Each structure stands twice: as C-alpha cells, then as structure tokens.
Amino acid sequence: MKVLLIQLPIPRLNFGLKTGNIPLGAACLKQAADGIPDLRVDILPEAVASHAGDQALIKAVAEYHPDILGFTVFSWNLERSLYLAKKIKEKIQTRIIFGGPEITPDNEPARSPFVDGYVYGEGEGVFRRLLTDETFWKKGRVEDRSGISYLGLGSPYVNGFLEPGAENFMLLETQRGCPYRCGFCYYHKSRKTLSMAEDGIVLDGIAHALDQGVKEVYLLDPSLNSRPGLSALLEKIAGLNRSGKLAFTSEIRAESVNENMAELFRKAGFTGFEVGLQSTNPPALKQMNRPTRLPVFLSGVKALQDQGIAPTVDLIFGLPGDTLEGFERTLDFVHDHGLYDHLQVFPLLVLPGTAFRKKSRELGLNYDPHPPYTLISSPGFSSQDMVRALDLAEDKFDTGFIPFPDLEVSFKSEKGGDLYIPLNGRPCLAKLILEDRRDLLEIESLARNITSPFQVFFGPAVRDAAYQKAVLTCISGQNPFVPLEVVFLEPGEIPNTGDLLAAMAIRRPHFLDQDLRYLYPEPGNRAVQFTLVTKNSGLCFEGEMRRQVFLWDRTGLPEDSDFKDLAYLDGVLIDSCLPFDRQKKFQDRIMPLHEDILPVNFADVRLQTRWIQGTGAERYNISLLRDFFGLRSCMGC
C-alpha cells in the first residue's frame, strides 16, 4: 500500500519567500504508521508542495499514484486542497483523507464528494485504523477519542521522518492541548486535556537540532507556561545550548513571567515570545473568555524585555464586546507602555470550531464565508470601522501591518528566454518571458508545469490585448489557485487591467482576496499583481494591485539625487550594460541605504539575487533563489 501526504503553503505573490510550510503533522502520521507491514508512507517533497503550480502538483501526485492521499488542511489551503482532490480523483483511483485544523464538525465548506474521509483533531490513532481496518472507512468522519498521546513516540525529526529543510528551522512539540478557552481559538477543542512530552523527548529534539546545525527552534505550544516543571526543563535546555547557537521562540501568557522565569528563558536561548494581549477592553476580554490582569501582563513583558527577549504583542480588532473606541484605547495602552517594537494587528477571524463561530448569530457576527472567515461587521464594528481600525493602528505606530508584495521583476539571464527552477530535480517554469508572440498551443503546454506564484512578462512587441488575454486565460485556467504577477515592459500605453483580470480563470475570491483584504479600503482583487515598467514619464499607472516602475537603461548608474527624483514611483529597474563588477560595487554602496530609498531591482537575475541576499536574506530562501538562477554564490558571483 502506498500513501502520500501533502501540506500546501500559504499563498504568496513573491517567489522565494520563506514559506514556513513544514509538514510536521504529516511526519507525525508517518511516524505513527511505522511498523505496519506492506506499507509505504511518503510526504510530498516540501519544494514541490510549497512552490509547484496546480497542474504540476496534480501531475506529481498522479505519477506517484498513491492508494491513499492525505491532505493537511488549514484555512489558507482548504479551497485549493478541495480543487486538487477533485482533479486528482478524476485522473487516478485513490482514497483521499482530509485532516488538520480546518477540519471540524461545523465546517460544511470542507465537505466534498471527492473526499473519502475526514479526521477531526489528532490524527495518528485514526490514521493507523484507516491503514489497518477496512471497515473504518465506512465512518467517513472520525475522531480519536481514545485519549492516547502520541507525543511519547518522540520528535519525527529525531526519528528520521522529517528534515529541518531549506529554511533551517524546526518545529518541536512539547505539549498538546491548551488550558485556556479563548472564544476566537480552536486549539483547546482538538484536545480537551493536556498531554506533555517527557523532558527527555524534548531534550533529544534540541540535541538533534544542535547536531544538524539548525539555527532556530519553535516550541509549538499554545502556551508554554502551562507546562508543569518548566523551570527545571529550561535549566536542562540551557545546559545543552551553552553555545547559544540555537534560538528558541514560542507562545506564552505574559502574566506567568516573573524576573526569575525571564532569566531562565534567556539562559536557555529564547529570543522572542508571542504574547497575546488581543484587547484591553473589559467587555471584549469577558466575551472571549480571556481574563487579563494588565499590570501583571506589563510586568511580565518588562521582565522579558530586561533579558533581551523580544515580546511580540498580538491585537485583534472586531472582537465581540469591543468597539472602535475601545480598540483605540487598546492602541493607546500599547503605545504608552512601549509595547510596539514587535506588534501584530489582525482582524477577527471567525474560525470553524471556535466559540465565536458557534455563537456567531447570537453575537451578531457577520463574517466572510470564505477562508480565513474575516469579520465584515458586528454590533460594535461597522464595515467602515473595520477599515478605520487598521488605519488607526498604522497611523499610531507609523507602520503597515498588511505588507504589499515585494518588487521583484528581474527577467534577464545569461542564456536568455524563460526562467526555470528545479523542484525535486525537475525544471519548473517560474517566469514566462514573451519578447514576441508565441503559439498558444506552446503556452498551453508550458502552463502545465509552472511554479506558484508565477510571473508573465509582456515585452514591448507584445501589445495586443486580445493575445495577452488569451495567454492569461490559458495559464490561469489550468492553475486557478496560482497567484500571478503580470509585468508590462515598455507597453506604450496603459493596459486595461480590468479586462485582463476579467479574462482570467483564477478562482475568486482567492484566499489572498481575503488575507490581503486591508491592503486597500475596498475588497477586490489581491491575487493578481500588475506591474508596468517604463521610462515614459507620460504614463501613469496607479490603483489597486497596480504599480509603476522606472526602467533605468542609461549609460550610468543612478545617483542619490535620481532616487529622490523617482521617489513618486513604486520602484526602479536597473537594466545596465556596464561591467558586472561595476554594478556589484554600486550595489555594495547603496545596500545600506535600501530602506531609505524607493525599491530597487536589477534586470539581470544574478544581480537581483545578490541584491535580495544583501537586503532581504532574513525573509527569503536564498538557496532556493540560487537554484532558480543557477548560481553557486550570490554575493561572490
């Protein structure tokens, strides 16, 4: 029997960003199934799962031809998983299982005739039953009520079922379950009691991380402070991590932290914690069943800060019991106490399985039915208030909490033509460069093997709108869940992006339409980015998901005054004929200034990769980009 497990990533509009798409759940299932005779369990390689387009994923699964196909489902990949399940079922005979946080008894949108089984909560026990008991499939929807904890099996990393991956990052479970019952969170529902991994298992995982040269470990607990004997465990971790090579992060209730505990965290190697404040408004705290003693919260945060540990404070707007005025008082509290160095601000998500979803009618919560189920309005927040709330936060802290897609429009390689990246040893098209019209049959063939996300470049000679629409229709029709960027190189006139968008078969609303809802005041397209590159100052390309970039193809390179003159635009693309080494020296000079000038790109993919490594290495998977452009060393190339 062959089993294949898949976990799809959060959609993004920029290729090469770190995805964090670590299939820990799949690895736990594989570990739990170990020892069953005549069974092979594989996890779809992370590079393919995270970066392949829809058709490429379907092909990869069909070629493997599993007897059982399992999807780990989150809000960000539910609709794409349903689509792939349908298409795969049409190609091959296989049984399909859905499990993960999104699979709950009350989540009807997850139902599909193409899915044979749904697993609620922890999956190891159910998975073993499905693999060994044919009659168990007849149940259709199952939940493990045995109470058995599979944490005792140890970390899948240690036992050889999961690798740290290209991002050199590990997730380590020390417990399952949560003692708190917050109205917006489902975590406690999946396990009604706490289950703890023994200290030895945790320490084995940390020793493995050190042996593998891992840089960061995230302790995957909803609240680390609920673990009995935490102080003793931290002392043991500190002994293992004497070198300080490992950095730890996790979640914690700040009220549980005192000076002694903060010092233990620092000695163990913790560099940051997510501390969920959510609100300071008493009615909102009561509604979400999250009593918070603000003076004690502040004391805990200060204790962490005094030890050099960065607390990331989370805030939610749109909570039942809250109002725009109440949220503004929360912002004032955070500002007045200096809690905004690491701040995250989110709209309320009315998630399946949560108390807020169960009581949504009673509470008057009007939310989007599509993932991630963003609140639209409530008795305390009008739809205008929801927009205003984020505006208030961004104005208060002079920052953006919903990031715009990065500018990355390099398109020239030494070989010329389209740009591919190897995914699990096979080339996959990432940038389609149309310098001239190409036959639509060729485009149709290419569309079966693209990355996600994907870029299409229309050169100066490809201005026919009907042809552009045909290309985009073909690509999106075969890959309706792949985010696209359409780049117009010296188009001569402003393209009609509305017509182009209408011609695309991209699934709407796309997850990005919801996740990036607050990039602009009104909802709309967020899954297709349009970028116009020109040196024609007579063109003006503005509006939602539109940006205009200056094409710098002059004999010299930009001076500081040029960057100031072009600051009204969304970026500059440097396409220079100057020697490579001279352009590298130019990069070295302006890299320290990159945050103070408009976004800079380079047409040459080698220079662009070097630029990303020097300005955004903490956010990008540089080794992936090196593979993308066939480079061995970006900084030295």
Describe this structure in words.
There is one protein chain. The protein is α/β, with parallel strands linked by helices and 637 residues long. It has three domains: 2-143, Rossmann fold, CATH 3.40.50; 152-347, TIM Barrel, CATH 3.20.20.70; 419-629, TIM Barrel (Alpha-Beta Barrel), CATH 3.20.20. 33% of the residues lie in helices and 19% in strands. α8 runs parallel beside α9 (259-268), α9 (259-268) packs parallel to α11 and α22 runs antiparallel to α23 (622-629). The chain starts with a strand and ends in an 8-residue tail after the last helix.
Question: What's the SSE blueprint?
Answer:
Elements: E1 2-7, H1 24-33, E2 40-43, H2 46-51, H3 54-64, E3 68-72, H4 78-91, E4 95-99, E5 117-120, H5 124-132, E6 141-143, E7 169-172, E8 175-176, H6 187-190, E9 195-196, H7 199-211, E10 216-219, H8 230-240, E11 247-251, H9 259-268, E12 270-278, H10 282-287, H11 294-306, E13 310-317, H12 324-336, E14 343-347, H13 355-358, H14 360-363, E15 366-367, E16 375-377, H15 383-397, E17 419-423, E18 426-434, H16 440-446, E19 450-458, H17 465-478, E20 484-489, H18 497-503, H19 511-515, E21 528-534, E22 546-552, H20 560-565, E23 572-574, H21 580-590, E24 600-602, H22 605-616, H23 622-629
Parallel strand pairs: 1-2, 1-3, 3-4, 4-5, 5-6, 7-10, 10-11, 11-12, 12-13, 13-14, 18-19, 19-20, 20-21, 21-22, 22-23, 23-24
Antiparallel strand pairs: 8-9, 15-16, 17-18
Helix pairs in contact: 1-5, 3-4, 7-8, 8-9, 9-11, 12-15, 16-17, 17-18, 22-23
